[in-house]
């Protein structure tokens, strides 16, 4: 069975990991895996270390990794018709801005989606908690709902020209 990205880097299963914690753990594991230190036996796979780092540095992927380990049975409720209609309307307006080449309007929609994503991120931290046990069913269900909405804002950011996994997005 493959290790989780948290296990690979020797980090606790938490959403609220700081970027510097992830980088420090990555660099420590890379140093331990160096053939001069580890020899041929027990050396960590550099590809696995890089993949774990990539996953944990991305807020959405890190949240999904926490959910897979601490709330794997959680199911999000269906998205509300109001939410879906709002997203449909907004994406249509953003598409019109893109087609017209209106940089100011595109920037406004980019900011709107980034702000909404930031709101969702702030909701996840208390839901996913810092413990290592299973998530409470209600918290897991709410976190699943937040992650389901998150995908819509990632798609919106892709539409208005921000790469999905941009470090500064």
State the low-pLDDT regions, or none.
Answer: 163-169
Structural class: mainly alpha
User: Number of helix segments?
Assistant: 8
The pLDDT mean sits at 87
Radius of gyration: 19 Å
Percentage of residues in helical conformation: 55-70%
How many DSSP-defined strands? 0
User: H/E element string?
Assistant: HHHHHHHH
Question: Which descriptor suits the 3D outline?
Answer: flat
Distance between the termini: 33 Å
The biggest beta sheet, please?
none
The portion of residues forming beta strands comes to: under 5%
Describe this structure in words.
The chain is mainly α. Helix content is 69%, strand content 0%. The protein is built from 8 helices and no strands. Helix 7 runs antiparallel to helix 8.
Give a brief rundown of this model.
The protein has 169 residues and is mainly alpha-helical. It is built from eight helices and no strands. α2 (19-33) packs antiparallel against α4, α6 (81-100) runs antiparallel to α7 and α7 packs antiparallel against α8 (137-159).
């Amino acid at each position: 069975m493959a290790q989780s990205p948290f296990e690979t880097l020797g980090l606790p299963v938490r959403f609220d990991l700081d970027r510097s914690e992830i980088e420090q753990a990555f660099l420590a594991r890379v140093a331990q895996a160096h053939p001069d230190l580890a020899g041929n036996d027990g050396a960590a796979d550099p590809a696995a270390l890089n993949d774990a780092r990539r996953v944990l540095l991305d807020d959405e992927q890190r949240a999904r990794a926490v959910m897979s380990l601490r709330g794997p049975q959680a199911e999000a409720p269906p998205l509300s018709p109001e939410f879906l209609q709002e997203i449909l309307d907004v994406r249509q307006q953003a598409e019109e801005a893109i087609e017209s080449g209106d940089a100011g309007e595109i920037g406004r929609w980019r900011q709107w989606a980034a702000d909404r994503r930031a709101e969702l991120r702030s909701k996840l931290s208390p839901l996913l908690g810092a413990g290592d046990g299973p998530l409470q069913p209600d918290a897991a269900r709410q976190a699943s709902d937040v992650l389901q909405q998150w995908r819509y804002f990632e798609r919106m950011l892709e539409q208005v020209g921000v790469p999905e996994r941009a470090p500064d997005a």
